[in-house]
Amino acid sequence: MEIPEINKDRLLRDLNAVSRIGLGEGGSVTRLVFSVHELRSRQLLVHLMNRAGLEVHVDAAGNIFGRLSGEREGPAVLAGSHLDSVVQGGRYDGPVGVIGALEAVRTIKESGVRLPVPLESVCFVGEESSRFGFATLGSSLVAGDVTMDDFANAVDAGGARLEDVLSSFGIYRENLASLKRDPKTVKAYLELHIEQGPVLESKKKKIGVVTAIAAPSRFRVIFRGQADHSGTTPMEMRKDALVAAGYLITYVDEVCREHASEDKGRVVGTVGAIKVEPGVINAIPGRVELQVDVRSITAASKRKVAGLIKKRARRIARERGMKVEVLTIREEEPVALHPGVISLIRAVCEEREVPFEVMPSGAGHDAMQMAKITPTGMIFIPSTNGVSHNPTEWTDPEDICLGTQLLVEALLRAAHAEI
Ligand code: GLV
Ligand code: MN
Ligand code: MN
């Protein structure tokens, strides 16, 4: 099969353009889902897809599909990722997979190479959990694996409920399921992404072939003590919710370190957000809300540790005479990617003699959701110093180009092969 070469300058130029949207201090990027910056980045993508001559479809949630027809109108091979970011994140988490997929599809279009089935380059809305605590929103809707009830505790820092934001787009309880993509219309899904960890760089490998994706348990813990005067309340009479939260934060770190080894499931846990009320220097904190994220590639280990943290939260509250509430944001299962797609990506690397590593992903991705409806695989490229969700996130442009070139080949193989 003849494999067309990507246009590296165009790929890097368009990636740079995206990274300027939401640019902040120290080169950081902030494009929270449904913010003006995130909407602006999706608008740019629609423009680029139109200019490439793709048939563009935007669904009610804002997921974008740029389609290139094949000889047959059979199920399409999809590739993509997300354009939203964390707060003060980097430039490549998500956009590499979106602009990489666009570059791959427009390269194939321009080459006129034989294409038996359609290809679609995709951008999923709201992959990051940074705004609502709820991750992979758009791909979950496309996979049809979510109901309005699942958004019950998805609320942003300003109190906006995800359910209400969706209703402002005309998405309601009754029609939510209509966003689901018929699995019969999809042949496979491929996602190019930065590794966001140190493995490839440390092993001097250019590509990661992803086997499985660790899944999070995410929940809010709310301690309710009593707000009181910081000068007049004797120490033995206080119900300080922030002190209770402090003990729990320390416990999350301890229990995850105890379960960090391979045989205990390589569990990781983070308290990444905290809200203190009333939050002033001269009042004892009366209400504190923590957002907890526990992940593992092993479902049982993750469940066990999440259970221990919830139990400890109740104990801390009991011992301090306060109330505690645990609200589930989302409970997900680790996902194994498709053996056929894994072999296909391996074969591309082997034939091109590109050094690769077969590895799981510690980060979450839209591929987790797409794997529920179609054979799915992921291609990782190295992250300098393993850093991500940070303004210094960096990947060598040559590695971005290599990953995108391999994506061209993987898409063509997936379009031709029986998977
Ligand atoms: C997405 O980047 C995640 O939180 O894993
Ligand atoms: Mn991310
Ligand atoms: Mn990502």
Short structural description:
The chain is of the alpha/beta class and 419 residues long.
Offer a few descriptive terms:
single chain; 419 residues; alpha/beta; nine-stranded mixed β-sheet; 15 strands; elongated; binds glyoxylic acid; binds manganese (II) ion
Explain this structure:
The chain has helices spanning 8-19, 36-51, 95-111, 137-143, 162-167, 199-202, 241-258, 299-319, 339-351, 367-370, 397-416, and strands at 55-58, 64-68, 76-82, 119-124, 186-194, 207-213, 215-224, 228-229, 268-277, 283-284, 287-296, 323-331, 335-336, 356-361, 376-381. A hairpin with a 5-residue loop joins β1 and β2. α9 packs across α11. It is built from eleven helices and 15 strands. The strands form three sheets. Strands 1, 2, 3, 4, 5, 6, 13, 14 and 15 form a nine-stranded mixed sheet that branches. The protein has a four-stranded antiparallel sheet with strand order 9-11-7-12, with helices on one face. The protein has 419 residues and is of the alpha/beta class. It binds glyoxylic acid (GLV) and manganese (II) ion (2 copies). The site of one manganese (II) ion has 6 residues, from loops.
List strands and helices in order, with pairings.
Blueprint: H1 8-19, H2 36-51, E1 55-58, E2 64-68, E3 76-82, H3 95-111, E4 119-124, H4 137-143, H5 162-167, E5 186-194, H6 199-202, E6 207-213, E7 215-224, E8 228-229, H7 241-258, E9 268-277, E10 283-284, E11 287-296, H8 299-319, E12 323-331, E13 335-336, H9 339-351, E14 356-361, H10 367-370, E15 376-381, H11 397-416
Parallel strand pairs: 3-4, 3-5, 5-15, 6-14
Antiparallel strand pairs: 1-2, 2-4, 6-13, 6-15, 7-11, 7-12, 8-10, 9-11
Helix pairs in contact: 1-3, 3-11, 7-8, 9-11
The protein binds glyoxylic acid and manganese (II) ion (2 copies).
